[in-house]
Amino acid sequence: xxxxxxxxxxxxxxxxxxxxxxxxxxxxxxxxxxxxxxxxxxxxxxxxxxxxxxxxxxxxxxxxxxxxxxxxxxxxxxxxxxxxxxxxxxxxxxxxxxxxxxxxxxxxxxxxxxxxxxxxxxxxxxxxxxxxxxxxxxxxxxxxxxxxxxxxxxxxxxxxxxxxxxxxxxxxxxxxxxxxxxxxxxxxxxxxxxxxxxxxxxxxxxxxxxxxxxxxxxxxxxxxxxxxxxxxxxxxxxxxxxxxxxxxxxxxxxxxxxxxxxxxxxxxxxxxxxxxxxxxxxxxxxxxxxxxxx
Length: 294
Fold this sequence. Notes:
With about 290 residues, this protein is mainly α. About 50% of the residues lie in helices and about 0% in strands. It starts with a helix and ends in a 21-residue tail after the last helix.
C-alpha cells in the first residue's frame, strides 16, 4: 500500500523511481531480489507511465530479471516473461561476467524458473547457448554444480530447443568433463546412458589433453571411475588416453595418491596399470570467479 501510494505521488514528491542505493539497486531490483511479487507487479504496471527503467543495471551489471532468477522467485519470473515483449525487457542481458538470467537459474538449481525460460525461449527469442566470460553455458553450470534435474531437463529438450550439449568452455571442458571432475555421478551416468542418442563425445579432451576419465581419476571420484570401467567397452571409452604430458588417468590417480581409484583400476582393469609410468608434474587448473552470480 505504501509503495503504491509513493508511486502514485512520485511526481509531486519528486521521488526518482530509478534512483539506486549504495549497492547500486533500484526499488524494482530490491522488490525482485526479495520476492515481493505484489510490489514488483505494481512497478511493472506503472513503468511506462512513470518512466521506470525495467532493464536498469545494478551491481555487477545485473538486471531485476537476473536477481529474480538467481534467487528462485518463480512468480515474478513468470510475470516478467509474460510482459517482457510489451515492456521491452531484455531477457538475454549479460551481467559484467557474461551471465544471463538463464545462467543464474541453472547455476543456483532453480528448476521451475529454468523450465519456464526454456519453454518460452523460442517465442521470446531467448538464447540458451550463450557463454559467459569463461565460456560456460547454462548447461555447463547445471552439470558443474550437480543440479541433476535441470541437467536432465536440458538434455531431454536439447534437440527441440537446439541446445549444444558439446559446447566447451575456455579450458576446453564440456559439461561431461565438469560432471566427472566434480563427482556428480548421477549426471555423468545420464550423459553416458544417452551419449549415443544425443551425440555426446565421451572421449573429448580439454586444453591440457585430459578426458573426463582423467578428471575423475585425478579427483578420486571412485564411483564415476567404476562406471566408466564397467561401460568402457559398450561406450568405446578410451581409458588409456594420454594427456599433453603423456599421462593416463591411472597415472594421475597414482601421482595424486588417490589410493581407492588406483586399487579399483588394478583390480577391475589391470591392463591400465601396466602402462608405462610418467613423471609427476604439477597440475595447472583454472578456477573461475563465481561471485558474479550470487
